[in-house]
Amino acid sequence: MSTDPQPTPGADPRPLTTEPLPLDLVNTVWIDGGVRHDLLQYPGGVSIWLAATGFGDTVPDTPETLEALLVTRAAIDALLDEHSDHEQAVNGLNETLRHGRIRRLLAPEGPQSVVDTDSPAWLAAWSAAEAYLRLLEENPDRIRKCANPDCVLHFYDISKNGGRRWCSMAGCGNRAKTQRHYTRHRKNTAPTNP
Q1: What is the pLDDT of residue 181?
Q2: Among the listed residues 144, 1, 11, 121, the one whose alpha carbon sits nearest the alpha carbon of residue 61
Q3: Which of 12, 50, 97, 183 has the fewest CB atoms within 10 Å, measured from its CB?
Q4: How is residue 40 annotated by DSSP?
Q5: What whole-number distance in Å separates Cα of residue 144 and Cα of residue 36?
Q6: How far is 63 from 55, CA to CA, in rounded Å?
């Protein structure tokens, strides 16, 4: 699979950007037209992702930040993949989590929780790892991979009945509906042998 051309500077080219932080990090890799895209590997891609997720002013775009994001993304992605080495993925996620903690304190405004990390470069990666744990605690069955076998995107199903199957109805869902229609139409118009 080939790698795509660079995105427009400053623009977030990803097809799915509204998912919880750990899935948003995993979704920095996607496939479009048979071409693999990786936002974090583009010049400026880390800054695009940090800005899109609210870390643009607090996390520097440095090689350390990129490494932290790549390690964390690989761990979460492996945990989402039923065919991967889960022990190694658990170790990878726990390694990310060792870089930070939540500190509770009483401030003049009242109780607060503050995230402390070894360095600012680990804040976004640690936050994604911690948020993944919260998703597992809340409803792990709602973490899903798109039903399109050619799609690598993941989503958190917040639909009332929990029946969401596609990363996007406009993208993968529409392609599946079109394919079903084409197959049904072709079957109905096939010549019959006398």
Answers
A1: 42
A2: 121
A3: 183
A4: G
A5: 20
A6: 16
